[in-house]
Specification:
Creatine Amidinohydrolase; Creatine Amidinohydrolase, Chain A, domain 1; 2 domains; binds manganese (II) ion
């Protein structure tokens, strides 16, 4: 059960409506996606739609109306249908949706094409997801055109705005309940990562570790994983989005696991890197501890007022210095950074917003393009990594094939930060102890 109740959604809708002078906002549910022939991927609701109403079914619409005199929220849903209930499960239907969702009106989705024209009448602004090419949006535009051509209608839709930016800005600041959902996701993800460390041994396949983690997620009630798991043994870790996971785990290699589950549609996003056989080699430990030191320092710098751009620059400086210390790069850190030399070994950003989406699409900059400053309630991952390809002959042989990333989920608080994933072991001693620990 979601911790969010109708009051949460109602207050979000009020906030959204208060940022709009007048007009009609249309938000559409995600459409089911075909996997092959007549089979579908598991359904996942559209995050912006879900954020504004909490409705999980497909084939649904949320329409918010604001005029000088009033504002109202309307939900369009699939009616209850016995045939559908028999084959695919019961839908809530119009009456029950009205009773359980605190919206002003609920209608059968099949009446939308008739009703939307009346809803749009006399409004001058339409707010949609500009990249939403669903038939519902096309229909709304068609009705707006018809109204434009109708004698006697005095006001017409004359501007179409992007509504997603407004919602994404609201989504930047997480409520107490949202943080609790994220914590629950992380709690299961912690179990899964610890499990992987405990059972890992040379000769296993990457997909076996993945399967054990998926078992932890599903057997504990998680409905989905936040993203395709990366289980990358040895040099595979140097392919950033390695999701093949078919290789054998080799003795003496590290394994990088970037995997996490979703809880009530809220994501977690965790990466740990550990030795397949449970014991870091000298060179692996050296690189690992340096990456960990960077991660700890970057997290320590997080607090309200700090700009995300600054944090990115700071982390690049630290990583560049690590590369110099390891003898992988040589020269002055500033000059190396200007030529982006460090990007060869540390190519990705330090972190991203996280929430209903693993990469929460909240803005990183304000309207002027200035980097946003952290505010209490924001959640960002911190995931420094260093990747040294096995075929990179410019690097000392002992480091070749090492790829390390360490990722945690950080909440900005009034006083500074809270590491939400601090329970997942990450020091060399903790990891080696976890790998040694007995497991059934
Ligand atoms: Mn991430």
């Amino acid at each position: 059960m979601s911790l969010m109740n109708e009051i949460h959604y109602e207050s979000r809708r009020q906030k959204l409506l208060s940022s709009v002078e007048e007009g009609v906002i249309i938000l559409t549910s995600a459409s089911p996606q075909t996997r092959s022939n007549d089979t579908e991927y598991p359904y996942r609701q559209n995050s912006n739609f879900y954020y504004m109403c909490g409705f999980k079914e497909d084939n649904a619409l949320l329409v918010l109306v604001k005029s000088k005199e009033f504002s109202k929220s309307i939900l369009f849903v699939e009616p209850y249908n016995e045939e559908h209930a028999l084959w695919n499960g019961s839908r809530l239907g119009v009456e029950k949706a009205l009773a359980s969702y605190n919206v002003d009106e609920v209608y059968d989705i099949h009446t939308y094409s008739l009703l939307i024209k009346e809803i749009l009448r006399d409004h001058i602004a339409l707010y949609i997801d500009l990249f939403d090419d669903s038939l519902w949006i096309l229909q709304a535009k068609k009705c707006a055109k018809e109204l434009h051509e109708t004698r006697g209608v005095k006001r017409h839709i004359r501007t179409i705005y992007d509504v997603t930016h407004l919602i994404r800005t609201l989504r930047l600041i997480k409520s107490h309940e949202e943080i609790l959902e994220i914590k629950k996701a992380i709690e299961l993800t912690a179990k899964a990562h610890h499990k992987a460390m405990q059972i890992s041994k040379a000769g296993m396949h990457e997909y076996e570790l993945q399967a054990h983690m998926s078992y932890v997620f599903q057997s504990n009630g998680a409905q989905a994983e936040s993203y395709e798991a990366i289980v990358a043994g040895g040099n595979n870790a140097n392919t950033l989005h390695y999701i093949n996971n078919r290789d054998v785990l080799r003795d003496g290699d590290l394994v990088l696991i970037d995997a996490a589950c979703e809880w009530e549609l809220y994501a977690s996003d965790i990466t740990r890197t550990f030795p397949v056989n449970g014991k870091f080699s000298e060179a692996q430990r050296e690189v690992y501890e340096k990456v960990l030191d960077v991660q700890l320092r970057v997290i320590e710098a997080m607090k309200p007022g700090v700009k995300r751009d600054w944090l990115q620059h700071y982390s690049e400086e630290l990583l560049c210095q690590v590369l110099i210390d390891l003898g992988i790069l040589s020269g002055d850190c500033k000059i190396l950074m200007e030529s982006k030399a460090h990007k060869k070994y540390a190519p990705h950003g330090i972190g991203h917003w996280m929430g209903l989406d693993v990469h929460d699409p909240c803005p990183y900059v304000d309207d002027e393009g200035e980097s946003l400053s952290f505010v209490s309630g924001m959640v960002m991952t911190i995931e420094p990594g260093i990747y040294i390809r096995a075929d990179d002959e410019t690097v000392d042989e002992k480091y070749r094939g090492i790829g390390i990333r360490i990722e945690d989920d950080i909440l900005i608080t009034e006083m500074g930060y809270e590491n939400l994933s601090t329970a997942i072991v990450k020091s060399v001693a903790e990891i080696e102890a976890m790998c040694r620990s007995y497991v059934l």
